[in-house]
Each structure stands twice: as C-alpha cells, then as structure tokens.
Amino acid sequence: MKRKDYINWDAYFMGIALLSAERSKDPSTSVGACIVSMDNKILSVGYNGMPIGCSDDEFPWNREGNPLDTKYFYVCHAELNAILNYSGTDMKGAKIYTTLFPCNECTKAIIQKGIKEIIYMSDKYAETDSIKASKRMLDAAGISYRQYVPVGKDITLSL
Ligand SMILES: Nc1nc(=O)n([C@H]2C[C@H](O)[C@@H](COP(=O)(O)O)O2)cc1CO
Ligand SMILES: [Zn+2]
User: Fold this and answer.
1) Rounded to two decimals, what is the model's pTM?
2) ipTM of the assembly?
3) Element (H, E) at 46
4) Is the per-residue pLDDT at 151 higher than 90?
C-alpha cells in the first residue's frame, strides 16, 4: 500500500518557495517564488536579492532614509527573479507560488508571461496601493489568485 503522508502539490511548491526565501539577504522580508507548468513541472525559482554584479555586501538593505540609500531602488523581487531565471520559452498557463503577494511591477511581468494563477502565502501589504493595483490588473486580466492553505504538516530540514 502506498505511503499516506506524502505532501500535496501545493505544499510541495510552496515548500520550494519557502526554501528559496531562505537564500534572501534581506533582513526584514525574505520572499521566495516557484513557477510551475500546467502539468506540475517546476520551471523556475527565485528569491529577492540584489541584481548580478551589485554586491549584497555593498548595496543598502535599509528601509528608510535617502531613497538612494534604501534597498527599494535596487532589490530584484523574488517573482521577477523567478521569471528572469527561466531559460525556457513558454510559461503560458503556468502557476506562480510566492510567499508574498506580488507587487504591481511583478504583476505586470506575470501577466505578460501568460501565468494564469497566483498562489500566495502572506498578503501583509494588502493595504498598499501597489497591491491594490496588482489586484486590479489581475482581475482585469482574468488571472486568479488564492491564498495557500497550510495542510498542517511541519517539515524540519537539518541543513
Ligand atoms: N511581492 C514582493 N516580493 C518581493 O520580493 N519583495 C521584496 C522586496 C524587498 O526586498 C522586500 C520587502 O521589504 P520590506 O519593505 O518588507 O522591508 O521583499 C517585496 C514584495 C512585496 O510586494
Ligand atoms: Zn515585485
């Protein structure tokens, strides 16, 4: 008889998004994303980090101060990195698992790539205009989004 406590697809892909977030150097918010094809094959992963060549020891991680000395102008979001890290050509009908609801800029890229579903974990910035704009675009574009419902299984990784 087959094993019973295997994880479902959602838990598997959100788990990979969560593990990817562990690579982030952002001291306040680590984000991970995993893009999956219609037939449940992983296409790409990403986490929030500085662009290639922009040292994460030299670029700022501050949230406040002179805008040029904050991370916001520089950091590449997890979802955008996952899209850009994909070396294939066709993302149509794919799903994106992300640990945080996509901002308006990533949402544009998600839409343009033909991704059709967003599964997110946290929506902690739901009250910001960026996220409101994301939802407006997603609703107009007919892209669905739903919050991940944890299955109640804890997995410990000893790394
Ligand atoms: N969906 C997202 N994906 C992301 O990768 N990020 C990144 C950008 C920053 O590195 C960090 C947010 O920093 P903070 O404002 O919570 O200190 O998360 C942010 C959002 C929010 O929309
Ligand atoms: Zn973004």
Assistant:
1) 0.97
2) 0.99
3) strand 42-47
4) no
